[in-house]
Amino acid sequence: MSNEVDFFFSQPNSERLDKFLVSCLSELTRTHIQGLIKNGYVMVNNLTILKAGYSLEKGASIHVTLPLPKPSNLQAENIPIEIVFEDDNMLVVNKPAGMVVHPSAGHQSSTLINALLAHTPFLSQQMSKVRPGIVHRLDKDTSGLILIAKNEKSQVFLQEQFSSRKVEKYYFTLVDSKPKTPVGRIEAPIYRDPSNRKKMTIAPGNKGRIAITEYSTVESFTHHTLLRVKILTGRTHQIRVHLASMHCPVVGDRVYGHKNPSLPISRQFLHAYQIKIQIPGNSQIQNFIAPLPEDLKFVLQRLNSKFLLEGGL
User: Fold this and answer.
1) Average pLDDT, rounded, for the chain
2) Vertex 86, ends 83 and 87: CA angle to 5°?
């Protein structure tokens, strides 16, 4: 199955085929269009053209065959989700703790993607059929803001901002003990633990991928510290690994912290509460916020948090 569209080139000056099609098919990226050309899906004046740089002349007729994405096995599931923002290009969702972002081994259903497909079938499937629309991820037991793209161009636009470190992404976390300094920056590469493939760890020497985490103290308690964390890179388990390396593991983190949590909590105290990013079709930086969920507020209440009482969260 496919979708076929036709265009007419009426400009007086010649232009590259791929560049012209980008202006016509705004929902597709130039890379995708170049792939269509290379694979024989584009004809000019009834001739198949395989070169993206082919020069169009005035009067040329262009025929494009758009193959429809192969259906995936993903099923829509009627699971309630909290949508913070939505337009034609993307969604911002406040993911609850305990929900996996996309299907994977051991988690074939009840994921955020399954829930979103019941809300809207329009998620970008160009990057991955099993992870449609995914721009970035959150751990299963981390709550908070996550961005989802509805089309390929938006997905690339958003991901490029993460890659170029233009996104400001902040978390609240409660840790055991107290950092040596109230404000700090951790620059330590991370890689998969060779002795336990389910864990990440600080990489020795030149191994691993660069990871940068900044933190500042929001409130100090007798045996715990509430931190505001900003990540400049998005490595797997980055915050949890970096804070544990300072001997300040995230409260409730049974993987990198204490097997028996120091406070009554059923998951790690980590919440992605703020994202500042430019969204498709808007030149202004947008600021999205998700308040601290009730289970984490309950923990702070037990500590008589002044910051919580003053409405800081």
Assistant:
1) 89
2) 170
